[in-house]
Please model this.
Amino acid sequence: MKKTYSKIIALAFLALITLRCTDLDEKLYSDVLKDNFYQTESEIVAAVAPAYGDLRGISGDTWDLNSHSTDQTIIPTRGRHWYDGGHWQRIHEHTWTSETPQMNNAWNYAFGRINKANQLLFQLGSLSNINPQLKDQFVTELKIIRSFGYYHAIDFFGNVPIVDKFDLPAGFKPSNETDFATGRKKAFDFAVKDITDNIGNLSRNVNTSTYGRFHKWAAYALLAKYYINSQVWTGVSRWDDVITACDSIIKSGKFKLETDYFANFIAKNEGSKENIFVIPYDEVKTEWGLTWFFMGHHMATQRKYNTTWTPWNGFCALPSHYKTFDPNDKRRLGWITGKQYSSAGELLKCTEESAPNPLEYTVDFGNIYDPNDQAIYDHRNAREFNGARFVKYAIGALPGWGMGNDIAVYRYADILLLKAEAIMRKNGGVATQAAVDLVNQVRARSISDNPYTIQTLTLDALLKERSWEFYYEGMRRNDLVRYNKFVRGNWEFYNRSSESDNRNVFPIPQSQINSNSNLKQNPGY
Model:
């Protein structure tokens, strides 16, 4: 019975559709309708599946804010494209406000997951005619999903309300704490307790029945992420707890580094032995779910990849990020530059202000077709061909608007580097041989030159290694904040030298405050 339902729910997850442009501005604290209770085992499967399916919204503004506000990627204004009210410019400049729409979308993603988990926990708690083991299994997973939602809420907004019930009085409006630090720590403690109280009940299996679900090892990865951020989020370091969580995964023997770095990101990457927790997508069933190809590539490359629809020529690498890679580092191949050709070998052409010149992706922002052009090209004024483009997630058949690659949320490489970081921080920021061996294990598959030593592996070096290993994997902003490198960053195009530390968190969206006067805005906003 258990095996049958595991297979059913895995298929149900893949069948769900989450749109990239879905309106995430849902009503977050409403009551469940009394006639919507699920009374059978098959209905429980149908009920729980959306909690996982809705995780696909992570590839929208939550992912964008984690990268485009950093030293890695950018969505520049390209002529008549991508101005979008100046919001992307402000994200790069760190001049966002509580009215910036991406903030509200990210808030709704986090609390949408929290609310969905609470709703289903309430429904499951109301049932008496189901297999208790099956019920406990899904209750446990839902609490981990709730902690996953809180991870993003705490990371982005800090002082967020704790909501652990769905059957709340009409008109209930949750409140956060008057003191920012107190509120962030309470939310942290609540979410971590949810994980530690339930992790022992999760499945130890890593197979098709647990693919895309929170098994025990995925929960340990989430827990390690909480602990590595504890010093910033709560003021209390938890380095030994990071090491213990990472060791639980390492000693399980369930995961290993793929020999080929890019095996984790191929169009059909379900076979990766390195990916610990993924969010599944499908190029047909989740058509609008993963649009990274369309977000980043030039319109003319429709003929290169033979897509049904035309891409939008949006995000690209910041020049400084691309230039930090050693030329021999295989990971740099996740960015492409140079002249672009159709699948038939024809040179593609620019189609906007630079037409009909050849389409050539340039690392630097400038006008290679006019040496006399004195214009300044940056995040506010870019040419259609400026910027290396993202191919780390392989571009497969695209019959619709979405890619079929599954997003690797937690990888074994991250666990190894998190353990190394915790060892170093516990040792006053100084490397030990154990930390060096962990980092070199990850680095060696992509570049054989210059392995680290105890003398050369500093925390700054480790942060650079994380940049090369995890670019556009939804963690760069968090890494920079943890290393105290996010505010006043000196990457291209904008002077942040006078930026306040308050910018290490985003503002609580004004639309949320307008609808809930119990929410206190974060300091500095």
About this structure: The radius of gyration is 23 Å. The longest strand covers residues 275-279. Residues 132-157 form the longest helix (26 residues). The mean pLDDT is 92.
